[in-house]
Protein: GST N-terminal domain-containing protein
Amino acid sequence: MATDTVILHWYSLSPFSQKVAWILNYKKVEYKTVTIAPVEPRPNRRPLDGGYRKTPILQIGNHVYCDSKCILDELERRYPEPSLYPAAPGGSSEQTEALAKSLRYWLDNDLFLAIPSQFDVSMMPEAFLKDRAAFMGRDFPGKEVAPLLKANLYTQLKLASDLVGSKTWILDTPTLSAADLHLAMDTFFAINVLTPPYVIDNFPVLMDHFQRVSDAVNTDRTEEMPSLSEEEALQVAKAASGPGPSQDQPFLPELKLGQRVSVTPLDTGRVPATGVLVSLTSDEVIIQKVTDAAGSVYIHFPTAGFIVTPAQASL
Structure:
């Protein structure tokens, strides 16, 4: 297989996985998929992610991109057309990018994390509940509390609906931007948790916007992509020879290149990925992990939203 094989490690009910698949489809990237278990343990992923437990990850040869922010940036760099940051009338692509990234912090965090409060926990397997409670750092709300939290979710969905308003795309761009994908992901999640009738009845603007995004990104294309097993993906990494980055000095003087470090999310899923630090800039941190299963793998994370510490240090 070619060393630049693009592989999406995902499961279809993961909203962030869907968003990455939509980007791949929108940019008409040829890729393969690996379906992973929705819950830990995932032993065949550890040689590729160093311990990072969120989904999805995107593998390109022996480079692995973790967190949808990092994945989006890499796909935009490698496949610039069509851009996820089209210029609005009278504006620039740089302004669209700044606005989309600013909105992402609300849409990917506060709004997204308000939706699981409405899970019907009685319908969920115990293993899933335990896994997600560990991931979130708290238990799901009980049936007495969940209805009270619905007001918070309703208010945020209404704000999102008002943000779209009568516009085709959130930032009034000629084509969709990354901001539309971030919001569509939340709508996808809300539809699955709250049921389609609830979203249709209360937020028709969001449903219409979601349909426009779905049409633009050809959501059905993912089903046409070839699949690989986890073991085959490991072999792709092992056969690849993509070089590592070259850097003289890390962004943080407290750390040194070649040092063993931990990279840990600051929000949820605070399980560190460990490896040797090979690059640290204001935008991205890259660690190297070498295993018999996958060979030498370079694991990429965004600098924002993560903390890099010496491997023996704890948060």
User: Anything to note?
Assistant: The chain has a mean pLDDT of 92. The radius of gyration is 20 Å. Residues 135 and 269 are 4 Å apart (CA to CA). The chain has two domains: 6-81+223-310, 93-217.
